[in-house]
Amino acid sequence: MANIEIELEVNGRQEQVSVEPGKTLLHLLRENLGLTGAKDGCRSGDCGACVVIVDGRSVNSCMVLAPQAEGSSVMTVEGLAQGDELHPLQRAFAENWAFQCGFCTPGMLASCYALLEFNDNPTRDEIRAAIAGNFCRCTGYQAVVKAVEQAATELRVLKGGSRNA
Amino acid sequence: MKFPEFITATSLDQGLEIKRERGTEARVIAGGTDLILKMRDKVLSPSVLIDLRRASLDGVTLSGEYLGLGASLSVSGVIENADIAQMFPALAAACKEFAGPPIRNRATLAGNIVNASPAADLVPPMIAYDADIVLRSSAGERILPLAEFFVGPGQSVIEPDEILTEIRLPLTSAATAATFIKLGQRRSMTISQVNLATRLSLDEQGKVSTARIVLGAVAPVPMRAVAAEAMLTGEELSEELLGAAARKAREEAMPISDFRASRAYRLQMTEVLVRRALARIAHQGAG
To answer: Nearest by CB to A45, which of B8, B33, B53?
Structure first.
């Protein structure tokens, strides 16, 4: 079947790509746009390695067909840093050793970023609930929880609206 | 692999017209979290996909008799809706235990119904609340109790030209005492070994006027344990009665053994969890 044209915004840039209609958003990002941060893990929405943010919400990009993403605003792990300046969440992951092999990290970061957009002061239980769809098979989750707590504190200070920082 | 034509419908009518012309060849894609897997595994091979996300079917509307949930409403959308949380908390509770956040952000209530999995988590609470569903075709619409929708695993009474457009939760069951329990191998990202919802209403004399016990993953379709419900109806609640109803529900269940759980375990857990669910809402004070 002929390719179809998809327009969408990715990390703040308007993109137009020509894809087979059965292609997933994950493979559109990786193969058409060269954004290989989101990982191709289970391809069935179970592992969370492919999680990106679509219109403000965390989603498994392996479970979105490219034409379903038409007109959407997508943010991937590549959209977090400002040039060489890591996002506070990324820095907190590094400082707290919140990854080992790193395969789950882009998806973890996307889920945690989406959490902090909705909730700038999450409890540990809320953080655990937010990453319930992201599997890590080497480091475990404690360090991720610590990293998100640290990033949340930092981001509240940056926003100046701090209540508990 | 030949991939289906993909049509982003701008209205429900356009979607219904495609269904009229193409029948079972055309599938509605909502969240896609089940459908994409079924296409890849060749369980389903539609030639057309109809995306209705621009057809404005994701609303929550209060009418005189029911709360209407649009077919495109996501599982997260249910969790975030204050009316649903207040009026139908057992449904909101099931949504919170459904998969994980990235799936909840895509998957829809209607998809969980149409997929017709015997283990669907959101179906038992909706049946417990006596939900109706609206099935539309280009010729008109019909309204059906959700409990009568399922035929077998992956099979339902939906006609080739029909689209499920709305779920209606009757206000008569709003804020009555109800609960949902899910048993799986993990707390998240797991398909239920057993799931169930129970609901009780009491009359002025403190006797049960309505009892619903709805079991999932223990039969080819989500099922009401009608004999257990009948034992409770008209009676005063007691420890003994709840235990007897739970044993009756176990007798009614007809689970299979599979890689998630054995038949014996599912039967045992049906009794334990029905008793636990009934005790929980009896304790809350049935409404």
So the answer is: B33
Residue A122, CA atoms < 13 Å, CB-side half-sphere: 26
How many domains is chain A built from? Answer: 2
Same domain, A72 and A93: no
- CB-CB contact of B211 with B232 (8 Å): yes
pLDDT in tens, A36-70: 999 999 999 999 999 999 999 999 999 999 999 99
Residues of chain B neighbouring A132 (CB-CB closer than 8 A) = 100-101, 187-189
Strand, coil or helix: what is B215?
A: strand
Residue B187 binned pLDDT confidence (cut-offs 50, 70, 90)? confident
> Best mutation site among A5, A62, A65 for testing chain B: the one with the most B CBs within 10 Å?
A65
Q: Between B37, B102, B187, which is nearest A111 by CB?
A: B102
CATH number at residue B273: 3.30.390.50
Chain B residues with CB-CB distance to A69 below 8 A: none
Pair B74, B160 in one domain:
yes
* Rounded Cα gap, residues A135 and A143, in angstroms: 14
